[in-house]
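2 proteins. here.
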Amino acid sequence: MQLILPLSTSEVLLLAIAFTGLSLIISGWIRADLAALLVLIALGVTRVLTPQEALSGFSNSAVITIIGLSVITAALEQTGVVKWAANRLAALSGGNETRVIAVFMLAGALLSLVMNNIAAGAVLLPAAVRVARQIGVPASKILMPLSYGTLLGGMATLFTTANIILSGNLVAQGQAGLTMANFLLSGGPMVLTGLLYMLLIGRKLLPARETVASTAVPAVDLRSIYRLDERLWEVRVTPAAAGKTIAEAAISATTGTTVLAIWRDPEAILNPAPDTPLRASDVLLILGREDRVRQLAGAGFAIGRNGTSGEGLDLPIELAEVVVAPRAPFIGQTLQQLRFRTKFGLTVVALWREGRSYRTNVGTMPLAAGDALLMTGPAARVRQLADEPGFIVLHTPASEVETGRQAVIAVAITAIALFVAATGWVATAEAMLAGAAALVLTGCITMDDAYRAIEWRVVTLIAGLLPIGTALVTTGLGTKAGALLTGSLVAYGPLALITGLFLATVLLTQLVGGQVASLIIGPIAVSAAISAHVNPQAVAVAVSMACSVAFLTPIAHPVNVLMMGPGNYRFSDFFRAGIGQTIVCLLTLLVVMPLVWQL
């Protein structure tokens, strides 16, 4: 085996900096974007790179492309195009579980061709939960396939972050970049075989679990609640009823209603026992008809949480499940810091995180991406929350989206930008930035909203880690590492090299995500291909697709995190269903590479 030793001082420093940065990201000791900035600074301070090279990531074409795509995606969402498409796709699902899985996997794949995977998953998530409820299938049978569909779709398009980065790696080493056709031809079969696997085998490995809300309140038939067969009400305990138990207050015996929960700040008591004592200012969540709930007024109870007689009496409420979206602006803040109850008039009674339900001091827990919140409040307030960025409200009724002139303009501008980028008439970064500017000029999105749409954490992460690739090339370490791979794998043929790089990338992706994996392995993979005289474009495509093989852990991709709460998934669920999906992708790759790239 060819050794990469001896190493120069710059190469040793580069290894130390890259290893430290990667360790910080994997461990989660500090935020990934901050770790990336520290890597950038270290490369410049140690003179591994010049200051200009260390900062060049912020002007890199991959970063500019991602900025443009973020604005385009936001414009499509704001003009109603994405929701309109999601509703149309959901309408095709029918009432059969297999058909629903197929439709939502394909819907996720199609939307991921032209927009961010997370955005595609987020817009389809409420529709998937709604359809699952309508046909009586657990959401856990649909949401993981939806997540996998968006990831598979990301393999078949140039407009995925890892794919953009690998194309940039090729250009940086004097090779031709990648085109949309490269990914459609290579990634298209991945979508088809991945879909077939899920329909024939994978769906049998998916758990059949109820939603977070039904797990937290198992005595309630959520379908009847959401269909409004009955109504939910908030009833406040006055001093006149304080000290009695639920049984002594004879709430159910007198009115035939059911006490589902008691909100007693800072605790939520779900499914309270009959001998649970009531306290003044307790708020009861009661299920029953309006005329029966009103019988409680004047018997030591006040309808509504706030008031005296006449205030808040018409307050039928809903039980809502709300998911914290990845990269929501308030991640890390608590509900108290957000003044959530004051601002939205909703009460969070439970929080689901990583398979565990929390019911006490929920307001003091810093929110994390993928958290599922069970909350109660007026229906109008729930609808208001659905318009807030970062909150994804589930179980919302299907609504017809009005698309007007702005939607048509947004679609036209997006189509033109994607077309000129895919055909190579204009550089991808320029095409995306021009498309974003055109959307602002035509009023499809405001400049302020465009700034808010840009995922600055992702931009900082990529711009901070891109200099590692530059350093691998300038120090020669990438060539040495590529030669090491060449010596150990190419002896068995080009497919052996591609298989080794694919598996290494998949493993790293499960730990740090595809974006970081592409930044670390991409330059080495291109150098290895050049050293071995193997088509570097083919190797780059294989590695970039491996960055989307994020099937084994929920932390491998934010879209998996997004599905965790609503699907009530555990970590092991992803590995059980995802290991077969990963094997299918590898086998498909080994068939596609010789056919498409003549290896």
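next one coming up
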Amino acid sequence: MKKSKTTHRMSKIMMVFFTLLFVVLFGRFFYIQSTGEIKGVTLEDWAEKKRTSSYSIDANRGKIVDRNGMTLAYDRPTYSIFAIVNEEYSKGLDEPKHVVDPSKTAEKLAPILNMDQSRISSIIQQGKEQDRFQVEFGSNGRYLSQEKRDKIKSLNLPGINFRAEAKRYYPNGMFASHVVGFAQRKGEDGKITGILGIENQMDKKLTEKNGSISFQRDKYNQKLLNPEEVIQEPKDGDTIQLTLDQKIQTFLEDAMTHVEKQYEPKKMMAVVMDPKTGEVLALSNRPSFDPNNRSNIQNWYNDVVAYPYEPGSTMKIFTVAAAMDAGVYDGKETYDSGSYKIEEITRPIRDHYRPGWGEITYNEGIQRSSNVAAAKLVWEKLGTDKFLSYLRDFDFDQKTGIDLPGEKAGNILYNWPIEKLTTTYGQGTTVTPMQLMKAATAVANDGKMMKPYVISKVLDPNSNETIQKTKPEVVGEPIDASTAKSVRELLGKVVTGEHGTGKNYKLNDFSVAGKTGTAQIPDPDGPGYLSGSDEDYIFSFLGMAPKEDPELMMYVSVKQPKLKGNELGSEPVSYIFKTVIENSLHYLNIQPDKQNKKMDVQPKTIEDLSGKSVKQAKSQIQKKGLKPVVLGEGSTIQKTLPAKGKQVFQNERVMLLTKGDVKMPDMSSWSLRDVLKFSDLMKLKLDYMGSGFVYKQSIQPGSVVRKSDYLTVELSPPGEQGQTPEIPSDENERSMQEQQEEKEDEET
């Protein structure tokens, strides 16, 4: 048959098409062979990647610890539970790897996860119906402790698995929460990030760097003989060591919690500092929060550094210091108290006791917290320009520079004559508690003003070697050493003097220099100040002890406490101050002031009593005017506390340890110092509240004492056993009529 022209034409077209296709494919193969690339990807790299397995090695976020190494924040290993519901995962296996019985699984898990059995069963069943591979159980199934994980694993439930993940944990709960802050998972990668406090301030140092491991494998995922393994070591975040002392911070937290429950104040702020270095030993605010449970944070601000307010009469410390330093203060000079009027103002400055105390000396005026005394000192003696210069020397016009986030500075209100006068006694001008504390270090530290700080060191997480260290820094000398000493003497009279407003702030074993404050609160709804009740103030105290050479300095303020009957606003303030300072000084082994001890002022030296009979040892101790406490059932002395060569004062107890079981002594009327000796000797875990002498103990007398037993004692001043210690009055100690008159004439 004769072929058609169409057939010839189609044959030629097909030949041309296949020829072109062959050329293209051959060219492509030739290109790939010669270059070894496809779409810019090197085949050798691609092959290596396909036969290489890589795994991440987790690192931990850095720890935050106190000055003694006590952990305040760390990454705690936790576990999330999930259930495999796909039956295909168990195909060909002897034991099932998926959830076989949803009902039974739910029944076992419900009490451990604190979930309804029906809810767990429903989640598993829905996962099966939706053909999902696995399901999780929401927030109840996340961050499980190792104890819960082990409990669930012991049930041997098929299909139940766990995924390990770190959670930031704060073992002390509500403890210096605004200082330590908190961190949480954030962003798409779920990385733990600092949100508040030191967690935020030092986030870069705390952040970890995960490592990795990679190796070459065959198609069965087995390592090759030469796997070319590459390991990148993980790096934990640095350890941040704070200046906070866990014991002193605990004293503070306990005292503030007690006051919070009893008085329900709107706000509280407190800080304890070493005035010689600027180290912050304790800091707390109320309202506070537990960083482990952040569902209801009422106050995100660290008020000690971020809440400027009119401080009230604590400002008189610096008014007097300026006048003394300038050489214009004569404490024996007299003036007329009650009110003070100059031409430049329309209404007079008044004392809190409106009639005044007649003609008194300036020393007495400061003891009585006279506004007139402070105003006259600046207007007539020092001069307002000179006083402003001193305020700036004390750095009241700037932030303290403390290493905490969110710090604010107050404002020196000093434009008009009335503002220049009210600033002398802490009204109009605003400061933060930390500004007051920084300025007061000059008074406590012989004129040298120290920069406050809370970060002591940055440590390597593995070697614990110091990477970075904060050194005490003198940031000014607004007054000289002799002025500082004179101011402390005068402030000591505020506590011990006949007319002192803070006389009941006196401690049992240590002298105190300090100043009370009763600050008015600006009315948020209009001009002027709140004046609805005797509670509408911020009550405060700034004190240092011992007075001659202060080792600790503390500021406490309580805003609008709920008072009952004849209670004064200063009562919650003084309870916090006395409890914390007295206990802290004993804890730091600061020697009591000799003038405060009703005993022989000459210290006694402990002799070597090891090997002597109990009778001999008791006799020698008693001859020195000391009190022996025999511990154990043996006949000879093995150890004493204080140890040989140590010095003690008359009437102190000396622990004499013998062989045998030690029975708990009756600690009634023991001093805290004696309790500390006993707990140290017996290696007890001690907690104590209050100040003064023991009236209650958790371990009953006569009980056998074991190492690591937990002992709690409660203390109160002499004559008040079994009662809350009496709290001192403040400068607001005046009649209702006098207070009402002051409210009516208050300067706005």
